[in-house]
Amino acid sequence: LCVNGTSRSLTSTAAPSGSRLTVVHLSELVPLVATDYVDLRIYQDSGVSQNTGTSVDQCPQLQVEYVGPTA
């Protein structure tokens, strides 16, 4: 997870599951202001090629939610 181009320490170690789909869920509350931008960067170094899914339910996803007072 990067905020304004700066990487945050959100890590997970998940062993590849062979031919099965490996799913990793991470979450963090990050204080943001209106001009901030957030992007998702994924890196794997298992030593072998690992494909990412291409269907809607298998592709890397980033979900951002507003948590705060209503206007």
Number of helices: 0
Q: Which percent range describes the beta-strand content?
A: 5-15%
Separation, N- and C-terminal Cα atoms = 27 Å
The average pLDDT is 75
Q: Strand-and-helix sequence, N→C?
A: EEE
Query: Low-confidence runs (pLDDT<50, min 5 residues)?
Result: none
Helix percent band = under 10%
Described by the principal axes of the CA atoms, the overall outline is elongated
Largest sheet: 3 strands, antiparallel
Number of E-state strands = 3
The radius of gyration is: 15 Å
Strand numbers in spatial order across the main sheet: 2-1-3
Helix-and-strand structural type: little secondary structure
Describe this structure in words.
- The protein has 71 residues and is mostly loops.
- Helices cover 0% and strands 8% of the residues.
- It has no helices and 3 strands.
- It has strands at residues 2-3, 6-7, 38-39.
- Strands 2-1-3 form a 3-stranded antiparallel beta sheet, with no helix packed on it.
- Strand 1 and strand 2 form a beta hairpin.
- The radius of gyration is 15 Å and the shape is elongated.
